[in-house]
From TrEMBL:
Keywords on record: ATP-binding, Helicase, Hydrolase, Nucleotide-binding
Enzyme Commission numbers on file: 3.6.4.-
Superkingdom of this protein's organism: Bacteria
Name under which the protein is recorded: DEAD/DEAH box helicase
Helicase C-terminal domain ranges (all copies): 738-903
Enzyme superclass (EC): hydrolase
GO terms for MF: helicase activity; hydrolase activity
Entry-linked Pfam families: DUF3670, Helicase_C, SNF2-rel_dom
Cited PROSITE patterns: HELICASE_ATP_BIND_1 (PS51192), HELICASE_CTER (PS51194)
SUPFAM superfamilies for the chain: P-loop containing nucleoside triphosphate hydrolases
Organism: Planococcus shixiaomingii
Domain annotation Helicase ATP-binding: ranges: 447-611
Length: 907
């Protein structure tokens, strides 16, 4: 019996799924799912921290919990007569783990094993089991997030949390302990001290200066003297949260004096930490309202070169500097004096203002560097000014540094931002295809940005050939001389695509695939790269994250992230790990650089040009909040201008591209089998090949056709072959890369406002697609089959043509002829037919008279299976008679050896 189950209690069986957060469903004794609003009150019965569940988050039938909430709620019995138990063994394991993690969080020894590395919270291997350490790290991170703190601040909290816990100091009945910051009086120094007040009073008490050095038990008023030891302990814990306080006398009420700079450091760091743990902080009211002084610099930028045509990125530029403080003009001498005085707070006219002395120092350093180091146009355009300067330049109409360019410089920068007149790079001779004009621009841009030392995001629309542009770039990089390999990280579902496309367009490149259970690890990986010396290493996001040590140990010639939206969630371990990879050139390929939130764009830019879009907190304040909350056009334009040099985005609707595109593009989408599919596939083939040896010619033909159907269903999804019912998208998608890829692609097409047709030969496959797309994307997807009445069929066609739904699934035979579906710009063939004419007829539902848009045809093929071999055979037979190709019997005429080769699964 689970620890939460008691005799005679009501029982809820929990199904627990974990990604970043926990998603929990409750099932009653008869197997029905129960809405969270019914069982949630029992779970939160004793939980004051969430106001007894008031702040909880429900998503349909799921209750969503952070790791910290999960541990807090399940570390003890939530309710005295309601029991929560795991439905499955893994659910019970999660509940047990919550208890263990809770014990660890309350273990003072834990903090002797905790350290911080950048954004990572590390618990060394000597403490507990690996799953507990991982869970603890996530829980600590969420505790920090809930308090508005970051992992970088954790070292200052450890002693406090170790002694007092995350909820902070317990409230005393008779007094309140606080910290007070007081402005300078007769000296230029501020006073900072620990003070006391009565529980209901507002006046702070502190000893007089003559008694400041007396110990607690002598200086405290009589009413608090019995609490002397307790007050001393609380003071020590409070001051442990203040990085600004290095040491103090534990027997005395704390008092010290600070300079302006020390006060500013306290306000920036210590005050936030203290308030996060509920410590009362008192500062002068005028200091709360003090305005930041507006120091502004105007730089008239000019080039000695008069003609724009000869100005290049490496052209040295000159500056004429002008300064102002809150609108008052300053000479260079006045500015230098402000920097030298190093004051944080000064009086300007009748008001107090704060000057960021560090900012002034950076400004002076910037000016000196610009004068001494001979800045170039490249320095100004891409590096711009140091990040500390950029972070304060949030007001485009009143920027910190205003650069005024002369005409020749402005002309050059306009060309660069528009990607016009880029330096021409010869297309590698061994590229086995021709680049379209816009693809040549993309290739030139890739090479240009590499030579200038800046990462980029190639964000062309789906179907415009990001892959072939990157392959041409790789041939250019690796065609000069042998050297470091390039790394490509992609989703597992398109790994086969990359293998095939590289082999097709760049057979001279030596490609290695870092994937599978036999891949080299540790030193073997390093030795493999040194001995085998590949030009390109292909890997997947999952493998790259799990083999981070091996990949981070290499410095790559280039690192490309395909479908780069896979690192969109900046907080996941996978995203944080991959963003740390190091290469000479970082490239992101994605047709959707922003799917839902601007933080996804930040994550991609953090990979290609770390720090360019500021730290995430500043990015949120500067762009995310104004754009996502306030829909600020000004902020949108500012962000567009900022990312424009590093992002190349073309869509199929661009008029310049329509002239260069075919009206229809067909593309093979290669998908590997999962281990489950591969095992079933090989078992079925072995059984059937043995039977074939004992059959007559007519019987063998029947067996071949039956075998063909089973194998093709198995290539689609094992549940079709095993006759299993639909469960949920979370359970069925990982079992078939093809199904997952089709569902994802269809969802992306619909999210972009486009429409697509999905053709399949199998009713079961259509239902899997219907249910998964509806569950994940919320689209009701009609499925047109041969049994559908004509009136209903005609209604659905009219609705699709009117744009009332974005995705239409059709059986290949029932929907392959007689329909006009020109609203679709994508056609997805889920499974291959041995008769290409049937596929072409289906494609022509969208690609026909009346179609005014570019049509992209995706044909899904599982690697190493009968689907890939049929595709190769059909390609070979294109020169033979149409009658032979279109016969559905040609496959049964193959010899036994040919059939065996056709059916055999090959990796």
């Amino acid at each position: 019996m689970n620890q939460f189950q008691t005799e005679g209690s009501r029982t809820y069986y929990l199904k627990i799924n974990r990604s970043e957060n926990f998603r929990i469903q409750a099932i009653n004794e008869v197997g029905n799912r129960i809405p969270p609003e019914i069982w949630k009150p029992y779970l939160y019965f004793f939980d004051k921290q969430s106001f007894f569940g008031l702040t909880s988050v429900a998503d349909g039938l799921d209750l969503v919990l952070t790791p910290a909430d999960f541990v807090r709620l399940f570390q003890q019995e939530p309710h005295h007569y309601v029991a929560f138990v795991g439905q499955r063994a893994e659910d019970e394991a999660w509940l047990g783990l919550a208890n263990k993690v809770a014990d660890s969080l309350n273990d003072a020894a834990l903090w002797d094993h905790v350290s911080v590395d950048g954004d990572d919270i590390i618990i060394d291997s000597s403490y507990g089991e690996a799953d507990i350490r991982s869970f603890l790290s996530d829980t600590i991170r969420h505790q920090l997030t809930q308090k508005g703190l970051t992992p970088a601040q954790l070292p200052y909290l450890q002693h406090f949390v170790q002694q007092a816990g995350w909820d902070g100091l317990p409230a005393a009945d008779e007094y309140v302990i606080a910290v007070q910051l007081s402005e300078p009086d007769s000296t230029p120094l501020w006073s900072f001290k620990v003070v006391l007040r009565s529980k209901r009073g507002a006046v702070y008490w502190t000893p007089s200066k003559r008694r400041a050095d007396e110990p607690f038990d002598k200086v405290l008023p009589e009413k608090w003297r019995t609490h002397a030891a307790e007050i001393a302990d609380k003071q020590a814990l409070i001051l442990s949260l203040c990085p600004s306080v290095e040491r103090f006398n534990e027997d005395r009420l704390f008092y010290t004096e600070w300079t302006d700079a020390e006060v500013l450091e306290f306000l920036r760091n210590d005050a936030e930490i203290l308030q996060a743990f509920g410590i009362e902080v008192s500062i002068p009211s005028w200091l709360k309202a003090v305005q930041e002084a507006k120091v502004r610099v105007k730089a008239n930028v000019h080039s000695p070169v008069k003609k724009a045509s000869v100005v290049g990125l490496d052209q040295i530029i000159r500056f004429d500097w002008q300064f102002s403080l809150n609108g008052h003009e300053l000479s260079m001498q006045d500015f230098q004096q402000l920097v030298s005085e190093n004051k944080e707070f000064i009086r300007v006219g009748n008001e107090w203002v704060r000057i960021d002395s560090n900012l002034l120092l950076h400004l002076r350093k910037l000016i000196e560097e610009a004068e001494d180091a001979d800045w170039t146009i490249k320095d100004m355009l891409f590096q711009n000014v140091p990040e500390i300067i950029l972070e304060d330049s949030v007001d485009e109409e009143d920027p910190l540094i205003e650069f005024q360019l002369n005409r020749s410089l402005k002309t050059l920068l306009d060309k660069l931002l528009d990607k016009r007149d880029l330096p021409e790079t010869p297309i590698p001779e061994n590229l086995q295809t021709e680049l379209r004009p816009y693809q040549k621009v993309g290739f030139d841009y890739l090479v240009f940005m590499r030579e200038e030392g800046f990462g980029l995001c190639l964000a062309d629309d789906m179907g415009l050939g990001k892959t072939v542009q990157l392959i041409a770039y790789l041939l250019h990089v690796h065609g000069k001389s042998p050297g470091k390999p390039s790394l490509i990280v992609c989703p597992t579902s398109v790994l086969g695509n990359w293998q095939k496309e590289l082999a097709r367009f760049a057979p001279d490149l030596k490609v290695a695939t870092h994937y599978g259970g036999t891949r080299p690890k540790g030193e073997d990986f390093t030795n493999f790269l040194r001995i085998d010396n590949p030009d390109v290493v292909l890997s997947t996001y999952g493998i790259a994250a799990s083999d981070a040590e091996e990949i981070q140990g290499q410095h790559w010639a280039s690192i490309t992230l395909d479908e780069a939206q896979n690192i969109k969630n900046m907080y996941t371990k996978q995203s944080r790990t991959i963003r740390k990879f190091k290469g000479d050139h970082h490239i992101a390929l994605t047709g959707t650089p922003i799917e839902n939130r601007l933080s996804e764009l930040w994550s991609i830019f953090d990979f290609i040009n770390k720090g360019y879009l500021y730290r995430i907190k500043q990015f949120q304040e500067t762009f995310m909040i104004p754009i996502e909350r306030d829909d600020s056009e000004e902020a949108k334009e500012k962000l567009r201008q900022r990312i424009q040099p590093f992002l190349l985005r073309r869509t199929k609707k661009d008029p310049d591209l329509q002239l260069n595109l075919p009206e229809k593009q067909e593309q093979l989408e290669y998908c590997p089998l999962t281990p489950e599919q591969a095992a079933l596939y090989e078992g079925l083939v072995q059984d059937t090949v043995q039977k074939m040896e004992t059959l007559t010619g007519f019987e063998k033909k029947g067996l071949v056709l039956k075998m063909l159907s089973k194998l093709k269903q198995l290539c689609n999804h094992p549940s079709l072959y095993l006759k299993e019912p639909y469960s949920s998208a979370a359970e069925i998608l990982p079992r078939s890369q093809k199904l997952e890829r089709i569902v994802t692609l269809a969802g992306e097409i619909a999210e972009r406002g486009e429409q697509c047709l999905i053709f399949t030969q199998y009713i079961g496959m259509g239902h899997l697609l219907q249910q998964a797309i509806n569950e994940l994307y919320g689209h009701e997807v009609p499925f047109l089959t041969g049994s559908m009445p004509k009136q209903q069929r005609d209604t659905l066609v009219a609705q699709f043509q009117a744009g009332e739904f974005p995705i239409f699934i059709l059986s290949l035979k029932a929907g392959g002829t007689g329909l006009n579906l020109t609203a679709a710009t994508h056609v997805l063939h889920a499974d291959r037919w041995w008769n290409p004419a049937v596929e072409n007829q289906a494609t022509d539902r969208a690609y026909r008279i009346g179609q005014t848009q570019f049509v992209h045809v995706h044909k899904f093929v599982t690697i190493g299976t009968i689907e890939e071999k049929i595709d190769a055979l059909l390609t070979q037979k294109q020169t033979m008679s149409d009658q032979f190709i279109q016969s559905s019997q040609w496959m049964t005429e193959l010899s036994d050896d040919e059939l065996k080769d056709l059916f055999t699964y090959t990796l």
